[in-house]
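Subject: sequence -> structure tokens, single chain

Hey, anyone have a minute? Need the predicted structure for the following. Not urgent.
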Amino acid sequence: MTRDDLAHAIYARIPGLSRADAKALLDCALEEMLSSLTSGEDVSLRGFGSFRIRSKNARPGRDPRTGAAALVSSRRVVVFKAAPHLKSAVAASVVSPVAGDSP
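Reply:
Had a minute. Here:
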């Protein structure tokens, strides 16, 4: 599902909301989440999950093309933890297998 798909779903579910307003609403929500995360705040969506920033230390690594040793610099990454409700909903869903996927 893409950003446009989400905006269309919002448009379809809220009577009287224009497509442009649905897109603006989604963009505003995502911008607020981005702003909170970049300032170091956690973002928690009850029943869905939470996003948080985690700092990773520098570590030794290697260049996959050459195999040469390289230092992976320290950085901040976004971590998502699904809420129990989301986990159970996904686990209970039935999805038809995609051709080429192995069990």
